[in-house]
Amino acid sequence: MDGIVGRVPATRNPRNSGIVGDRDAARIDLVLPRARDYKRVGRQIEVAFARPGLGGDEAIETILHTSADLLGITGSCWHLTDPSSGLPIASAMLGDPAGSFEESLIYEFRRPDLNRFDELRTRRLPVAAISVETAGELDASARFREMIEPCGPADELRVAFVDAFGMWAALAIFTDRRMTTADLKFVSDLVPHATVALRAAAAARALEVVCPLPDPGDHGGPSVVILDREDRIVAADADARRRLSVVPDTRRVDVPGLISFVAAQARWGADGRSSTARMRGDDGRWLLVNASRLDSRDAGDVAVVIQPARAGSVLDGALRAIGLSAREREVTSLVLQGHSAKAIASELVISPWTVQDHLKAIYEKTGVRNRSELVGLVPAGA
Q: Is the pTM higher than 0.90?
């Protein structure tokens, strides 16, 4: 469903400044935020987005902290994502998110529910709330009925930060009142500004100079870990265990959540295809992770291959963040492979003059002056 539709009553308690669901309206006098409230908070967030050097997590925290009272936010979790796959490369949370990480994977991949991020990213307006989506019948969502409501929140609002170059973050917000179309419009109006900030932060992070410490024990080739249906390690080689230890995760777990996302998509995907994502380790190295389901679908075992990401695949994310078009990224890839303008023209079936036009645009967008400097953009640690 494209756009934002439906309307569900929601209310505010002026005596404690908290926002509660309409099921409490019979007990206390409650009112909704006014148009000027949305305008004031929106202006504050847009000003914050204009600050130079704003990080990806900072951009999302700005939205959450500034609009906490307006939307009645009780908790949230989010992922900065690989722009091409939409899979997480980093995760964070604030407040008291409903349910657990493991439960959320079940509803995202095994028991598809409303507003899955993989579907939300394809919408014209990638913002949705369970209450609005179900026209107030929230129990129609198994995720709400079984995971969210027992933890206390009255609704869940989801946002996919997407533009023409990819998906930059996925955000889930839990609230103590039901969302309305006015709430969703408020958030939808913020998405373009937030996406610009997130993409700028991704570009800065992708191109930052990082000099990873050499690891004499890492042989640089593919490594393998076998996970059971509960993401317990069945078997793993030494390189895989070493690489798992540098994948960021705030929890004390053997299998980081970023790996679990890739494994869950492979384990429960309807088409049985493997799942691939890039992620950056705490040591600065970029890793390519590929997960494939083993044997029957019911067994749930997954093979995860982890290896150093090739420079070209890492650069693709950086070039998306900078704002290069698909054709410009193709030209850049061929330049990095050492092809001449004539060879690029032949490979892409375009004229040499068109190649030069693309190169001019690439140099302007990346801030380099020639091929040598363009080659120097390849992120360290790749």
A: no
